[in-house]
What does this fold into?
Amino acid sequence: MQNFISEQNLNTLLDKLIAAGKRVVAPRLTAGTVLYEPLQKAEQMVHDELPRRSAKETFFPVCEDIMSYEKEGQQVRLTDIDPNSFPETILVGVRPCDAAAVPVLDAVFSWDYRDEFFLKRRDKTTIIGLACTTADDACFCTALGLSPADPKGSDLFLTPVEGGGYTCETFTEKGEQFIASHGSFFSGQSDAKTLPLAQPQTDKFDLKKVKAWLDEHFEDPAWDSIATRCVGCGACAFVCPACHCFDIVDEGTEKKGKRRKSWDACGFWKFTHHASGHNPRDQQPKRYRNRIMHKFKYYDDKFGQTLCTGCGRCIRICPVGIDIAAIVEEISKK
Amino acid sequence: MTQAIDTSIYSAVTSAIQAEAQRILSEGQVSAVVGYAPARRKGSAQPVVITEASDAGKLIFSASCVNNLAVYLTKAKKEIPKNGKIGIVVKGCDLKALVGLMGETQLKREELHIIGVPCAGVLASTFQPDKALTTETIAPKCRECDAQLPQGCDFVPPQQPVTQALEKKYAAEIARLEALTPAERWAFWKEQFSKCIKCYACRQVCPFCYCEQCLCDRNKPQMVETSPRPAGNTAWHIVRAMHLAGRCAGCAECERVCPMDIPLNLLNRKMAKELKELYDYEAGFEIKEKGPLSSYDEKDDQSFIK
It folds into this structure.
């Protein structure tokens, strides 16, 4: 059983993959901010900071072209993007809260319509998770039944050990395949002790109770007190590992242009603005209510899971301090 | 060397704000008070609207009271009831925005009860709200603040903030960028704008972005590409900077809230500097009816028309 990889071997392996033309994506400092970005060298990987945005963009980019058009006289030429052209990718150093969101996204992108752009990238990606050794008081994965060592969504999962290096467990065929293909970088049983892992301080939510309340309280004065302060930006949705709404627009001229898919957010007033001018979510609390409803009720109704993994990004980033962990906890006590 | 900033007055300031809010609400002088309240995370604060005198004790002031609450009084924020007089807690930088909104006939002075805060500074970021205020963690805007004591308020707690001279980071960065060639400067901003993900947090927190429909949200006709790509990102940030020229008073909320760390207030400060040099105009505590870019005078400098 090959279950240990040293720090140095991990770097050498990643460098070898990069040299072989594989796309290796990991937390990396990019123009002053840590993001999941392709590495040029393994040493660029940041091991101890939760990236500002989640790993979802590896499969679901901020913006992507999905088609292009050209018009000449009466002739219109449409050109598809070929999802087979997406590169084989190793996504490494993924935090458990980000990896756990991937199966959550799989469900929605393969449900009534198979989104080839998402699914093809997903198919061609091996996910190597990494346990967290640090957490802050915005982290709440434990409140949702996950943990800093949860391998959900990972093909392979690394846990740092004392004296350096990682123990490595496989959870899928892809993970086993990865170890089999790169066996020389891994060694046998290690008896090194796992580094102390992060311990987020939040108590486990009673999600059944939360959902039961949401089932009955679409209209409730609580929404005003929760979200009157919401200013209606999309920051929470854009840093979220599980939010997956997108907008499709044609950009260009009459003669030539592209159809593009980019992230959207239910916090925007424009999100539900009808062509007639009517907006069913005419006030901000109704928009924020949708965020909570979708995460803890609608998604659960449809897929039997929660659309939140407790990464805490929206809590840290919210311009006006809206704290989803505090809100869900409050609802669970109603 | 990192030095602590003295915020010891904030507990007395908190008590004074609570007492004033309690008084004006119980006397029926105002229908609501917009202020700051503590939140779950250690050291955190969030905007709150209180309407009952019994809730006045919830109000606080601390180094994590970063928001410019003036945004809640604009017509863009329909959720805040605007019936009758409203109380609002403001730092000096926030007050300049209120004054600007009055100049633009968005707010009436007599409909506000302004509680000014003697301010020693706030945090640059509230990602970790329990950080102590130091020369490292203080917001860059506070390093060049000239408004620690707001003027023309209805009430200001009597405490005096201890101030210390700090290096002006915006001024230094503007000087650095001005010394670059246009191509180098363009490369700098191109990289910055390429980070934008079009979350519009900068627009949504800005007291001066009160348009009910932003030009950048229009699609009939479309003025600016909405996709988070170089063309639309650059257009958006130029529109934003130009629309704020001569209006932005430097609360720097846009920069604080940017999830991608784009130095937006740097653009705002550069525009403010241009306005000062060209028109001897700056946003401050005095209500002015028309800014230089919304008025015309035959004596205006025409030399740029070639």
Summary: Residues 169-294 of chain B form one domain. The longest strand of chain B covers residues 32-38. The mean pLDDT of chain B is 93. Strands of chain B lie at 32-38, 45-50, 86-90, 112-116.
